[in-house]
Amino acid sequence: MGERDAVGLAKAQAEHWTAWLAPISAESAVGQDPGYDDDFQSMREEVNKLSGADADRVVSLAEKLLKGACKDLRVLTYYLWARLQRDGESGLAESLNLLAAIIERYSADVLPARPNSRKVALEWLASVKVLDSLTLYPEVVKAEAERTVAALAWLDQVLQGWPAQQRPELGALYAALSARLAQAGGLDAVVPQFSASHDAANPQATQHAATPGVGPAPNTIRSGRDLLDNGRTLASYLREQPQGWLAAHRLMKSLRWDTVHQSPPHDASGRTRLAPPRGEYRAQLKRLYLQQSWNELLDQVERMFAEGVNHFWLDLQWFLYQALSRQPAPFEGWARIVKEDLGLLLERLPGLETLCWDDGSAFADETTREWIEQHVSTQGAAAWLPAPAASNPDDADILALESEALAQADRDGVEVALAWLDTRPDIHSGRQRWLLRLLMARVAEQYGKSELALHLL
User: What is the model's pLDDT at position 246?
Assistant: First the structure.
């Protein structure tokens, strides 16, 4: 937050909590322990549900208890979870602000009475339950994130007044918020770099993030998240128009690529803090390529590109180019545009193709890197020269082996045919090896060896 006073900002935002901060009664400012209160028991049961918890009910019960029965940290943390579950980071920031305000007002008198119970109640904020709710809202809005930081700074300040052994350990919450911010590209990202998948896994999160067609009107854009949501809506409309695919594709690519002005932060080995694509995605793409299902491959690439931080997954661009270039006009012409767009991105962010996800897997595999080096890169004179004649077999040569392999499978069995393919000479480059594996998988699939085909992929 730069040189701004985070605690002062948080206190200024606490003014609307006046009714919540008022003492319960003249005799007991913090009220009575709610352990046997029916509303508290109902709230706890709702929070502990494995699925289908009613966040609105928890919020309502918490407000009733905090205003009329008790100033209790357990009620406050349940309220925070429900607001986060329902409203995303705006709910988290407001709840943390209320929590800090109540602790500052009532200090060591706040319930529960036992210091260790207070510590345990606050440490629930770093529990799996709360952190899982945080993952439902990966898209960071600068104003909301700043309010969260301010509230945490205030909370930390008031907790410093407690004995060291009674202070909660909230490291897991801080780490989750830090990782979420890094995934989103930092506070100053024009568009959140992490995009929600909008798969309706959580209806409240889906409503908050706005599914395509249900976003704010373009004239109400107030954040990068709103901009991205409106972009999805516009792209969805464009795809439905005749020859509208390219416009829709480049709109989303502009929002996700052209607003990135530097490569993701990484260590000396090129490893970033970005989470990799889902494990099943790569096999799904390879299977569609193997089946030559170009339209479906195109749809899946577009869907994956808009999810998470997959706009940095450069293998998607290779699959996209393959799907377009194998279809009639105008798609084959669009393939060239896709390749040129990637070249411009790599010119602005040199070395992006060498970076890795946080698990060590590459943004671009060997096949994609070879394609980039030979056909995409705009750097160096070699990119402008005709490719030299090669003695190695090209794509057509490798794929032409299919008919011979099928004949051998009919004659001697599929295992013999696969072994014959696996020992073909002059297979040197990563792309050639990858094409050979695809061909082997295609042969295996045609002879009912589906599991073997997936293993080969």
Answer: 92
Phi/psi for 400 (5° steps) reads: -70, -15
Whether the CA torsion 102, 108, 114, 119 is positive or negative: it is: positive
The predicted structure's pLDDT at residue 395: 63
Rounded-to-5 percentages of helix, strand, coil across the chain: 65, 0, 35
What number of other Cβ atoms are within 10 A of residue 444's Cβ?
A: 24
**Res 277: pLDDT:** 93
Q: Vertex 176, ends 174 and 178: CA angle to 5°?
A: 65
Q: Is the peptide bond before 115 cis (omega within 30 degrees of 0)?
A: no
C-alpha 31/C-alpha 22 separation (Å) is 11
Residue 49 contacts residue 87 (beta carbons within 8 Å): no
Q: Which residue carries 């395509």 as its tokens? A: 212
The closest of 136, 362, 144, 141 to 269, measured between CA atoms, is 362
Sheet strands (E) in 41-140: none
* DSSP sequence for 348-402: HSTTGGG-B-TTS-BSS-HHHHHHIIIII--SSGGGGSPPPP-SS--HHHHHTHH
What pLDDT sits at residue 310? 93
Please state, in angstroms and as integers, the Cα–Cα distance from residue 242 to each residue in 234, 248, 294, 372, following that order: 15, 11, 18, 31
Question: So what's the pLDDT on residue 201?
Answer: 42
Residue 230's nearest CA partner among 222, 239, 221, 238 is 221
User: How many angstroms separate the first and last alpha carbons of the chain?
Assistant: 47
Radius of gyration of the chain (CA): 28
**Spans of all domains in the chain:** 6-183, 262-384, 395-456
- Phi, psi of 221, deg, nearest 5: -70, 120
User: Nearest-CA neighbor of 78 among 90, 93, 61, 97?
Assistant: 61
The sign one gets for the Cα dihedral 110, 114, 115, 118 is negative
Distance CA 332, CA 144 (A): 44
Q: What is the pLDDT of residue 216?
A: 45
State how far the Cα of 354 lies from the Cα of 332, in Å rounded to an integer: 28
pLDDT averaged per 10 residues in sequence order, the chain, 457 residues: 80 92 94 94 94 95 96 97 95 96 93 95 95 89 90 95 94 91 70 57 46 47 79 87 90 91 90 91 90 92 91 95 91 91 93 94 92 74 41 61 83 84 77 80 80 70
- How many helices and strands, by DSSP H and E, does the chain display? 23, 0
Q: Rounded to an integer, what distance in angstroms lies between the CA atom of residue 37 and that of residue 59?
A: 16
Q: Which string of DSSP letters, residue by residue, matches 20-31?
A: HHS-S-SS-TTB
What is the per-residue pLDDT for 379? 43
